[in-house]
Amino acid sequence: MDLVEAFGARATAHHGGMEFFERVESGGSGDLVIIDAPVAVTSSSSEAPQLFIDTAIRQASRGRGAVTCVTASNDVVLVTTARGYLLRYSWDENGNEQVKEVEVVTSKQNADHRISAAFTDPAANHVLVAVRGPTGGTGGGSGAAVHHSHEVYYVHRRWPRARALPELRSGGPLTAVAWCVRQQGDEVSAAGTPGGGGVGGARKGTPSSTAGSISVGESCTGPILLGTEIGALLELVLDERQKREAPPKTLIEGLAVKEPRRGGAGGGHAASAASASTSTSTPTSSAAAFTSLYQISLLAGRKALLASTPSHLRVWVTPPAGGSAAAAAASPWQALFLNHTGQHPGRPGAAPPPLAVLEAVSPSPCSQLQLWWPMGLSDLPTRFAWLVGGVVYHGALDWDAVAEATPTATAAATVHSGGGGEVLSSVAMLPVDGYGSEADGDGDGDGSGTGGARSLVVTEYHLLLLARDRLRLVNRVNGRTVVSRAFRSPLTRSVTGEPSREIDGLVRDLVSGTTYMAVDEALYDITLQNEDRGMWRVYLELQNWDAALRCCSGPAQRDEVHRARAEAALTAGDYRTAAVHFAKISDGRPPFEDLALQMAECGDPAALQTFLATRLATLAVSLGAYGARGGGGAAAATAAASLFGNNGTAASGGPGSGSERAQCTLVSAWLTELYLHAINRALLEAGGEAGESYQSAVTALRTHLSDWVHLMDPGTTVSLLESYCRLDELLQLAQLRGDHEGLLEQLMARPQPDGAIRALTVLRNPSVSRELVYKFAPGLVAAAAEEAVDFFISQRPPLDPRRLLPALLRYGEPHSPPMERQCVLRYVEFAIEELGTTDSVVHNLAVALYSLVSGEEGEAALLRYLTRAGRCGGTTPLYDTQYALRLAQECNKPRAAVRLMCQLGMYPDAVRAALALDLGLAKGVAGEPDHDDALRRKLWLQVARHVVETGNKIVTAAAAGAGGGDAAVSAAGDADGSYGSTSDPTSNIRTAVEFLREADGLLRIEDILPFFPDFVTIDNFQAAICDSLERYGAAIEGLKADMEEATAIAEALRADIAMLGARSAAVSLWQPCMRCGRPISEAAPLTSLPQGGALPAFYLFPTGCAYHVACCAAEVTELVAPLQRKRIHTLMARLARVKPGAATAPAYGGAPAADVSVLQEALANEIGAEDPRNGELTVRLLETPFVFGTDRAEAESWVI
After folding, report:
1. Per-residue model confidence (pLDDT) at position 1006
2. Rounded-to-integer distance, Cα 1195 and Cα 919, Å
3. Overall average pLDDT of the 291-303 stretch
4. Where is the composition biased (Polar residues) (predicted)?
5. Omega of the bond prior to 753 within 30 degrees of 0, cis?
6. At 210, is the pLDDT very low, low, confident or very high (cuts 50, 70, 90)?
């Protein structure tokens, strides 16, 4: 209910570190009245949490009697009344209250039966109600019959009435239940509901902030554990779909009770197993009663049970799932409690020793256990609080210690007040005795009387305690009371000071985290907000530095914690810790300069280095630049907040300002020099050897460079590293900065070829610019030619060969290394053949490289290139032919030189050079000019002259005779003897005559006769001359036959022309016109063209088609040019004006008179030269569009 709308509110002054909002009732019942002032405290009001109290339900019993118990879970409040009713309160999404009533105790029984406790699961689907009644017996002794004085009823949320559970009558009154909670993923967790949930001690489980993570079965409860007043522990499964529940499994028949310490309250004697089953509330049975139970699911299928009694807090843990004991039992709890001594399953045994035990100093029947779940019921609880005997024992739950614990240990770890154990760790004792006696002084201090604290709710940092009509909020960390409030119930309000009725108790909703306070007929909602505000100061006073930092909410609070911790460390002489926390201060107090000077003069060499490293990390966090390049290793990886400004004050530029970045750069440079100095010091101490301290210092420097390279000034850092000759770190710096150019320069300065090979590895990185490849290509090829060429070839997309020429051209010189030249030639071949480059410089380099290859293999490769690869489209050379010719001549490649001369058109020189090598090569060169017969004839004459003259020299040498002549002949003649031989002087003449046939008719015998000497007789040429004459005669006869054939053709043409002039054809007068369809004997339809006069009636074409003259003219004018169309109109108009029988047409349009026959012939030439539908005009129609511009609109109207 809204405070302002319902009651009005006034906020008291800030007390107890919190804002307390009280509701003042204006006349109606159901509201609280504050009867005392709050306790004054000293904490700052700006850090105070807020406490709200709102009315949740005004009349909880709804006229069904007094309220006896209250419990809540999952935003559902369950109220039991003295008349035996269970009221279920819930709220819809609009906040409307909904109530459902279930009668648990009938009207016949409610006179002597009273509901003592109610328990609900976290989902509020299942409810167990404990009912107490009168007791009595029929005899004495152990065998006397006893009337059971208690009942347990089961109510499902969908049931209109309760169901009794008679199987639970023998175990004693029900005092605690541990529910089984199904989590997401079918994992099992558990939450318990402690002792009684009603008047005088309403107790609930731990708070939870996450309701959506719980998935509880609506029909089945799963295995739940029940604790009774006599110390019995039962296991039971309830299913609302079953008409009758299975009998419970007894796990513990009764707990052994140790005699309490003298002077403690709530004591008693140990009860035997035989007497433990009675329902009489003796001191013994009260001491052994279970007051709270919690069932927790752990890893490896294990479960934990936390159970509180009036004197002890015990922790049991089941064996891991899959063990032999667990496999033999029906549940993990049976494996623990029934089989720990090897007894047969199903036979109850004594309780096994717990994993941990916490014993109360002063036992009390008012015992309540609360757990704290930080992430809701889906997670494990981390803290506990146990209220017993006016003392709250609280501590941490260390579940990691359970992983290696043995649940069947023979001796349990006992934890007394102020001590600690493995599972129950960091246990502290908080005395709360007398909290309730301050108002009226009637408490006995043990929690069992009317004045002691008897209800507890635990939050993250506080304990909410209720004693009679006083509500206290106690900080569990320092034990101080944050606020104390005394209330008086409005039903017993008095101005005379008479004692008012005490507040009934506190109830906590496990799922929603809501805390309810029950007072008479009303329920109040207690809300605590921002309870972590001010906790940092509490931890700071206790010097719990880490916890204080976790609770800080801003830079100012963190600065105060760091400052206090640094000053404490400085006082203790721990200069490195002081340096770390001084560096994390962001408000500039003390100034950076003073702190740096203090760290430099403290006597610890590492203090200044630690201070600067931490300050640099904190600055980087302020700039949002921490770890942008490196992966960690800085001492202040978790530092936060912006740092100092100029002169130690806060920077005004905000996060990321230029001032902070400049400070980062300065600090990083200073720290770099410190690391370098540490390296030199380590070398000096080790006598120049690289020892362990040296390696550690080098690692620290490299880590520093890796972490903060993005904040360093490149010039300053490089200068520092160069001054200390740290080449490896220079290489690392270039690599970290992404300065690939600097990195490559460093690598190329290293010994080769290792440096070049590492540089190629860098260049293979896709992020490296291609420009660096071109820049460093000369050095790479010079240092590692083969690896560099492999790299160039493997690049995708391919490199530009032209831009690699500066690295390749030097190997086109004769003095270049042969191995490197071969590698360069391999890349040039790749660029030409694979990349298809057409750059003339690349091709010139290819010519140079091929020319430098020695031997016949090199000349053959050069010839292959010149004939195939070096041409664009197979015709035009891509290289400089003159340059290639010069290289071929200088490198002694004569055949290549002949080929190049031919490309330059220097055929005579090519023939001359070829004749010096091979006659066959010369013949090939002479036959190359295909389209210039004169040049070919000249070249063949040159070859013939050489053949004849060489043959004459051979003959002369043979005639000169003697032994040495053979050598001369051999030297002058061709290797294959084609020039003749010494045995036949006329062989050279025969060779020359055979040569005439190879010349393809370009040479005759008379062309080569002048090359022979005068003494040669004509008899030697008789055969050649006769052959020549025969060819001439055959040519003359062929010409004569061609002339006779031409004459016959001319005569035939003249005869055909004469026949065409006299040709005629027969036509029927009823033959239709091809255009209009009318018979040609009838007049043509009227058109725009003239008709009548001397115009012919019709035209008949050799194709058999007939047209009226007007129709034929219309066909033609549609297709001819405008000028011809005009001529046709003029001729038809003149002929139409001629009177029938007239031979002359009068003048018309400026034209003189003319003969009718002339005009008719002219008209026939214009329109009757060919059939309009079967001649060239029809062919022209193929290019005419179907739709003209005038028809465009019509065509567009038909578009779909």
Report:
1. 62
2. 75
3. 88
4. 206-215
5. yes
6. very low
- Separation of alpha carbons 56 and 69, rounded Å: 16
Place of tokens 């003095």: 815
pLDDT at 917: 82
Provide the 10 A C-beta neighbour count for residue 869: 15
Sign of CA dihedral 796, 800, 801, 803: negative
Residue among 413, 482, 469 at smallest CA distance from 438: 469
Q: Whose CA is closest to 1162, among 1121, 1130, 1131?
A: 1131
**Structural contact between residues 615 and 643, judged by C-beta atoms closer than 8 angstroms:** yes
835-866 b/e with 16+ CB inside 10 Å = b?
eebeebbbbbbbbbbbbbbeeeebbebbbebb
Region of residue 1043 (left: phi > 0; alpha: psi -120 to 50; beta: else): alpha
Residue whose C-alpha is closest to residue 483's, from 17, 155, 942, 34? 17
Question: Which residues does 399 contact at the CB level (< 8 Å), separation at least 6?
Answer: 298, 304, 380, 423
Q: For 337-383, what is each residue's pLDDT tens digit?
A: 876 554 544 445 567 888 888 988 888 888 999 999 888 888 889 99
Q: Which residue has the higher pLDDT, 507 or 488?
A: 507
3-class secondary structure, 508: strand
911 near 925, Cβ under 8 Å? yes
Q: How far apart are CA 291 and CA 302, in angstroms?
A: 23
d(CA 237, CA 772): 77
Q: pTM, whole model, 2 decimals?
A: 0.59
For residue 646, pLDDT beyond 70? no
Judged by average pLDDT, the poorest of 309-323, 821-835, 1034-1048 is 309-323
Q: pLDDT by residue (tens digit) across 821-861?
A: 899 999 999 998 898 888 889 999 988 998 888 888 888 88
Question: Mean pLDDT in the chain?
Answer: 76
Q: Which phi and psi angles does 507 have, rounded to 5°?
A: -130, 135
Q: Would you say residue 1103 has pLDDT above 90?
A: no
pLDDT (tens digit per residue) in 879-920: 888 888 898 888 888 888 888 888 888 888 888 888 888 887
Q: Enter the tokens of residue 180.
A: 């089984």
The 10 Å Cβ neighbour count of residue 826 is 17
Q: What tokens were used for 539?
A: 């931890």
> DSSP characters for 70-99?
EEEETTEEEEEETTSEEEEEEE-TT--EEE
- Residue 749 CB partners (closer than 8 Å, separation 6+): 755
- 638 SS3 class: coil
Task: Say whether pLDDT at 639 is over 60.
Answer: no
Smallest CA-to-CA distance from 552 within 580, 529, 578, 533 is with 533
Task: Say if residue 652's pLDDT is above 70.
Answer: no
Residue 500: band (very low, low, confident or very high) from pLDDT cuts 50, 70, 90: very low
DSSP state letters, 401-431? GGTT--TT-SSPEEE-TT---SSEEEEEEEE
C-alpha triplet 335, 338, 341: angle, nearest 5°: 100
CA dihedral 1183, 1186, 1191, 1197 (to 10 degrees): -140
How many CB atoms are closer than 10 A to CB 300? 11
H or E element: which one contains 251? strand 249-252
Given a contact cutoff of 8 angstroms between Cβ atoms, the answer to whether 1072 and 1079 are in contact is: yes
Which of 768, 730, 763, 721 lies closest to 749, judged by CA? 730
Contacts (Cβ under 8 Å, ≥6 apart) of 264: 360, 361, 362, 363, 389, 446
1085, β-bridge pairs: none
Q: Which pLDDT tens digit goes with each residue over 16-42?
A: 344 444 443 333 444 555 555 444 444
Burial class from Cβ neighbours inside 10 Å (0-12, 13-18, 19+) for residue 1139 reads exposed
Torsion, Cα of 198, 201, 202, 208 (10° steps):
-170
